[in-house]
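queue> pop job 88
queue> type: inverse folding (structure -> sequence)
queue> payload:
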């Protein structure tokens, strides 16, 4: 009897604690208090980012399987991602983008070969720094790594061209650790039409592409609809038996005419499917005014350098460029990213939005306040200021994408 009374008492305590937590009004905090709370939430909650381009950053930097790996276990002077900054920002599971440039599609076998190389490079990163990084092939892996303080490295392949023309490669890449495939990239491929390409080769998914989506469902790879054309998007939703993701896309309302982003119609269709849209932080993705502003700044600097017979390397030029750029800052702010999250939440609900920064993939276009992985708390603080709850933040950080991932795994298990 005493044990039962004790259990009831403990339940009451936990209920009160939970109720107290729910009654926290973050909107009434000072900015400093709110940022502190946001940092605590970020560092105590699993945070998944749908798209970080570190593998290709390493390749572009000249690193290969034969050369020492880029040491991101320490703070790096460039790029947006490394271990210390990830820990500061609370990032626990950045999806490593196994990026296949569209140019590789012109050479049979080149796309698959590059994918294999980047996968091996990612695995080598985890093997080289096992006290900091670990591979992750499931939500359970991420949870286990999180409990050990390790940063998980799940992988997604950006551009289904890596499959080449062989459906068996879908299962091959699942065995290699790929857990989502972005169906297209910059141009149409064998799977379907891309948002950046106006050719309309297939009018959406190709017949092969339809088989690819079904096979991804079967083996347990998430279907990623970032980069695809609107017709490909609709076709994929009509075929898939499980929820999908958009690993790094933003809202088209803020960038009219930019098909790479998602229209309200597509956001609603994805929500009906149960999928999750992971917001891209890149300047051109979140504010149509950025591109025009950035072009204007670049043109002025080029003309100024020519008029003064200086190069960018000259100290006088560097000082001027910094001063001019700061005064004519074209970059959007962290508030604009929050606007995109707000739009999705207001349109379809909190259960269908996540984070897909595109760090290391969008160059110097990131918003003020979100320049690297250490700065996620700035975004969380802005959301708290707008009335988001801790539970809302947890859904955005990982619960929504975990739900999709688990649904894909469960369907695959039933099909085997």
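queue> result:
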């Amino acid at each position: 009897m005493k044990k039962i009374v004790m259990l009831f008492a403990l339940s009451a305590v936990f209920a009160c604690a939970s109720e107290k937590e729910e009654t926290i009004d973050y909107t009434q905090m000072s900015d400093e208090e709110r940022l502190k709370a946001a940092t605590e939430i970020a560092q105590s909650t699993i945070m998944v980012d749908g798209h970080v381009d570190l593998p290709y950053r390493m390749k572009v930097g000249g690193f290969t399987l034969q050369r020492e790996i880029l040491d991101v276990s320490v703070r790096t002077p460039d790029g947006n991602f490394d271990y210390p900054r990830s820990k500061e920002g609370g990032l626990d599971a950045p999806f490593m983008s196994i990026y296949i440039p569209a140019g590789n599609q012109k050479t049979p076998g080149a796309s698959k070969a590059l994918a294999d190389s980047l996968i091996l490079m990612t695995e080598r990163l985890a093997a080289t720094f096992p006290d900091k990084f670990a591979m992750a092939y499931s939500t359970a892996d991420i949870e286990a790594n999180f409990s050990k303080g390790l940063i998980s490295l799940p992988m997604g392949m950006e551009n289904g061209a890596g499959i080449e023309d062989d459906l068996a490669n879908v299962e091959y890449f699942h065995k290699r650790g790929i857990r989502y495939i972005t169906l297209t990239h910059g141009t149409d491929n064998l799977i379907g039409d891309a948002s950046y390409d106006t050719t309309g080769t297939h009018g959406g998914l190709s017949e092969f592409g339809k088989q690819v989506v079904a096979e991804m469902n079967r083996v347990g790879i998430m279907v990623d609809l970032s980069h695809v054309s609107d017709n490909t998007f609709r076709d994929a939703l009509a075929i898939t038996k499980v929820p999908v993701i958009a690993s790094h896309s933003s809202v088209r309302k803020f960038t009219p005419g930019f098909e790479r982003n998602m229209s309200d119609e597509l956001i609603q269709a994805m929500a009906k499917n149960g999928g999750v849209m992971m917001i891209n932080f890149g300047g051109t993705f979140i504010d149509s005014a950025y591109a025009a502003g950035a072009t204007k700044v670049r043109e002025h600097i080029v003309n100024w350098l020519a008029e003064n017979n200086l190069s960018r390397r000259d100290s006088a030029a560097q000082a001027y460029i910094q001063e001019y750029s700061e005064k004519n800052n074209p970059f959007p702010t962290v508030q604009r990213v929050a606007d995109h999250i707000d739009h999705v939440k207001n349109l379809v609900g909190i259960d269908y939005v996540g984070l897909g920064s595109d760090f290391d993939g969008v160059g110097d276009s990131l918003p003020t306040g979100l320049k690297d992985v250490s700065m996620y708390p700035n975004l969380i603080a802005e959301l708290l200021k707008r009335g988001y709850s801790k539970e809302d933040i947890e859904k955005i950080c990982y619960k929504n994408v975990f739900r999709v991932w688990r649904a894909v795994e469960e369907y695959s298990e039933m099909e085997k």
